[in-house]
Amino acid sequence: MNSYSFTVDTPFPLAIAFDSTSDSLTVRQLIPSFDMSITQINPIRLVPTTLSTSLLRSPDSTSDTTSIDFGYITIDQARHILLLDRQDRMSFQLPLVGLWLKNVLSPTHPSLQTLCKRY
């Protein structure tokens, strides 16, 4: 019976044992226990504007789905989201919390990285 075992020095002790007669591998690790809790987040209201209405509307056959459009997102003290056009002067005066994008179909789209860097 050939048996091999060793311990790996990691932040959480790891012991590995191999028994060649039964071809079994045993791995044991001491890890801390933890508790997890989930908290519901209330929905955040979107301020209805011409821009938000047009972005939420389903595209029709005449709309351009090839050009990428973007703008900024701000949030007020009442926790209402306001979408700003990229050329809106308010985007220089209000705190920005994110970007909105239109016609970006993939997270690997080349323009997406450029827009995030610009933000």
UniProtKB/TrEMBL annotation:
One of its GO terms (cellular component) is microtubule organizing center. It comes from the Eukaryota. Pfam families: STIL_N. Residues 19-119 form the STIL N-terminal domain. InterPro entries: STIL, STIL_N. GO terms for biological process: microtubule organizing center organization; mitotic spindle organization; protein localization to centrosome; smoothened signaling pathway. This is STIL N-terminal domain-containing protein. The lineage of its organism: Eukaryota, Fungi, Fungi incertae sedis, Chytridiomycota, Chytridiomycota incertae sedis.
